[in-house]
Amino acid sequence: MTSAKKTRASAQLALDIKLSEDATLDNFCALPSLKEVLAIIEGEVDFAHQYLWLHGAACSGRSHLLQGACERVTGRAQFLPISQLISYSAHDVLDDLSSLELIAMDDVHLVASNPDWEEAVFNTFNAAHSSGCRIIFSANQPASAIDFNLADLRSRLSWSVSYHLPCLDDSDKAKVLSFRASRLGLELTHDVANYIVHRADRNMSNLIELLDLLDTASLKNNRSLTIPFVKEILDW
């Protein structure tokens, strides 16, 4: 196999990206600060806006929302986690995606100052614009604040409807935990959720992992999620 063929094969393999089973819109806790953007995401799936730009910290739920949008367009959408794809040929990764209904490009700020990727994103944007394909971008800051070298790319991305996703405070994280517990069929009271948030690593991904662990332990021991049980299972 030639080098070019190897590159294309690698890129095609990388695009076989599985959506997280948990990352659905139904499984996204719509806190008051996020209800508007969730409604916009729903509108994006229903083709209310062609381009949407979500920006915020890694813990703000950007990836969850992008995957949830793709899950609603099963078979006609592509989730692109740029952090996992940036080492591949940009042309191969983004080639011929405009025939889809939705492209969800996560962490697009990572392509800044990478000429091949900037050009490929620019070309993908133009092709999507012509075909009517919708694109949701996510980044750590607004498009106007990212130092893209390609002026035409900065111009195109400015067409996006932009929304900031705020970081969750401890109270919000406790609400998310209780919401996710209810989706698992568990009752997680406000006091227990607050206890977990204040004792654990406050990273939301870590908190969700702890909840999954507690779910398994609760089923195994036929115990409800009380503070003494949480302390016992997590050895706190």
Which key features would you list for this structure?
236 residues, alpha/beta, disordered N terminus, 11 helices, Rossmann fold, Helicase, Ruva Protein, domain 3
Structure description:
It is a single chain. This protein has 236 residues and is an alpha/beta fold. The chain has two domains: 3-164, P-loop containing nucleotide triphosphate hydrolases (Rossmann fold, 3-Layer(aba) Sandwich), CATH 3.40.50.300; 170-234, Helicase, Ruva Protein, domain 3 (Orthogonal Bundle), CATH 1.10.8.60. The protein is built from eleven helices and five strands, in the order ααβαβααβαβαβαααα. Strand 3, helix 6 and strand 4 (134-139) form a beta-alpha-beta unit. Helix 8 crosses helix 9 (190-199). Residues 1-14 have low confidence and may be disordered.
